[in-house]
Amino acid sequence: MIGCLCLHGFTGSPEELQPLTERLQRKKGWLVYTPVLPGHGVGEDIGEAEGAKWIYTADRAAEEMLKHVDELYVIGFSMGGMLACYLAAKYPVKKLVLLNAAAYYVNRPQMVQDLVASYRGSENPWLDLVNDKRRETPMTAFYQFIKTIRLMRPFVEGVTSPVMIAQGMKDILVPEKSATYLFEQIGSKNKTLRMYEHSNHFLCHDVEQDLVIRDVEHFLKG
C-alpha cells in the first residue's frame, strides 16, 4: 500500500489540497491523509496555536502512516511544505512534493503589482482572500509561523528523497526565491523544479490546476 501524507498551509485547511487529494484517493491501494494542524480546525483559535504542535502533528502522522503502508509519499503546501521537508529528512519518505513551500514568505513586488492592477480594473481574484487572512490572523500566530519556518530550514539539506518543487510565479505570499532556494539546498540528487507562469499561491485551485495535478501524478507514479 502507498501512503500519501498531505500537509496544508498556515491559516489554511485540507481544502487547499482537495482537488489533488481527491484525485489521489481514487487510486487503488492508496491511503491519503491530510491532518488538520492545531489551531486550524473549525472553532479553534489560531492565536493560541503553537508551532511545536504543528510539527508534532505532522511527525505523529508520518510515524503512524509508516506502520501501515509500504511506501510513504509526502506532499506539503506553503508552510506544510517546510514541515514536509522536516519529515523527509527524518523518515524514509519515498517521494516528496513541495507546492509553493514557504522557505521564504511575502512576495512584495508581486503584491504591489497586483494592487496596481486592481486599481486599473484587472483584479487578482485571490488578493481579497489573502488580505482578509492577513487582517484576521493575530500577530501571535504570525510569530509562531515565522518561528516554525526558521526551525524547519536546517532540515532541507537532509532531504535525500526524490523531490518535485512547484512554484506559482504570481504567488504574492511565497516568492520565487523560495523555490530556487529549496532546489539548490535540498540534498537529493533527484529533484525537479516546475514553475507555473500563471498561478498564484493556491496552486491546486488556480488557473493551471489541471497541469499541476497532472505533473504531481506523473512524478509520484514515475
UniProtKB/TrEMBL annotation:
SUPFAM superfamilies: alpha/beta-Hydrolases. It comes from the Bacteria. This is Esterase/lipase. InterPro entries: AB_hydrolase, AB_hydrolase_1, AB_hydrolase_fold, Esterase_lipase, Hydrolase_4. Residues 135-207 form the Serine aminopeptidase S33 domain. Residues 5-106 form the AB hydrolase-1 domain. PANTHER family: AB HYDROLASE-1 DOMAIN-CONTAINING PROTEIN, HYDROLASE, ALPHA/BETA FOLD FAMILY PROTEIN. It holds the Pfam family Hydrolase_4.
